[in-house]
Amino acid sequence: MRDTWLRLGQPLNQPYFPEEHIYLPRYSGAGGHLQMETVATQEQRLMHYIKWQQELTQMDQPRVHRNIKLKHLFAIGTQRLNGILRGELEREQQQHKDLLLLPRLHDDYLNLTEKLIQSLDALTRFYDFSYLLKVDDDTYVKLDNLLNELVSYDRKLLRNRADYGHDPQPELYWGYFNGRATIKTKGRWREPNYYLSKNYINYALGGGYVLSRKLCEHVANHSDLLSTYVSEDASLGTWLAPLRHVYRWHDPRFDTAYTPSKCHPYHLVLHKRNGRHMDDLYANKLCTHEIPGQRVFVSYYYDWTKPADKCCDTIVT
User: Which residues form a coiled coil (predicted)?
Assistant: First the structure.
């Protein structure tokens, strides 16, 4: 990650993504709910992005050189680590200065939700930031493209702040959403304490998602009151569910499902990639993870007008 996609963010050297292709949600009325994108709008926006990508490669676009403040951190729980591992981490920290060490966390899969809470608590207390991108360590991010669109979104949001009047400004929760995930009753993901609904409340898949700072603060400030569940990503979706100012941006460019989808140049976040895949992606070899005949995940647009169990039937073609 250090040698590949984490190098793509500085300096950001791309033309701005056109703001007319950025969707800003509006409230249904004073005191109402944010209106999420329709399926048609999601499809149209993906087509605009693909066309914009093609234009970048086909003609000489003016470049905008921007230095955006970025900081990457690898969160690691250090509780119960032996002396040898602690020494290795200390040497790595001295060399790279990019470890977020969590002394009260035993780093284990079953503690991922607690790891998220402790990480958000530390980040909101010690770092000043506008947005947080959380990814797994087997995720590759086209960081320059993602940042470019995030900057355009933020610029448009700032320019239209007055349009929200007395309603709160939307807070971003950007990723690939699932509303029909069944609650597991056995195996590694067994969830014994989720009683809220038949399925998990809709959430962005944990391979990669973006949160605005205020949503990070909401979790950190109320962590002692929040029920935690085995799945970190499902927990986050449940915690944010009651908030009416959350903009859930479902994006098929986040390939973050349990298995990769068919490879496309428009993908921004790609989960389940090993070191060799990351090297290949960094060298613009996009699809080396694909195995002929292997089953692939089929991406969908999210229909926010339907019940959650019928959210995800419109396939991305």
Answer: none
Please measure the distance between the N-terminal and C-terminal CA atoms of the chain and give it in whole angstroms. 30
Phi/psi for 29 (5° steps) reads 170, 175
Q: Is residue 148 assigned to a domain?
A: yes
Pick from 286, 302, 301: which is nearest to 140 by CA?
Answer: 286
For residues 80, 82, 83, 89, the Cα torsion angle rounded to the nearest 10 degrees is -80
Q: What is the pLDDT along the chain (317 residues), one digit of tens a residue?
A: 999 999 998 777 788 899 999 999 999 987 899 999 999 999 999 999 999 988 887 766 666 667 789 999 999 999 999 999 999 999 999 999 999 999 999 999 999 999 999 999 999 999 999 999 999 999 999 999 999 999 999 999 999 999 999 999 999 999 999 999 999 888 888 999 999 998 999 999 999 999 999 999 999 999 999 999 999 999 999 999 999 999 999 999 999 998 888 889 999 999 999 999 999 999 988 777 776 667 788 999 999 999 999 999 999 98
Determine the Cα angle at 51 with ends 45 and 57, to 5°.
Answer: 140
Domain-embedded: residue 253: yes
Which pTM does this prediction carry? 0.96
Q: Is residue 262 part of a domain?
A: yes
Q: Residue 65: which domain range?
A: 19-71+129-283
Closest alpha carbon to 272 in 129, 153, 135, 174:
135
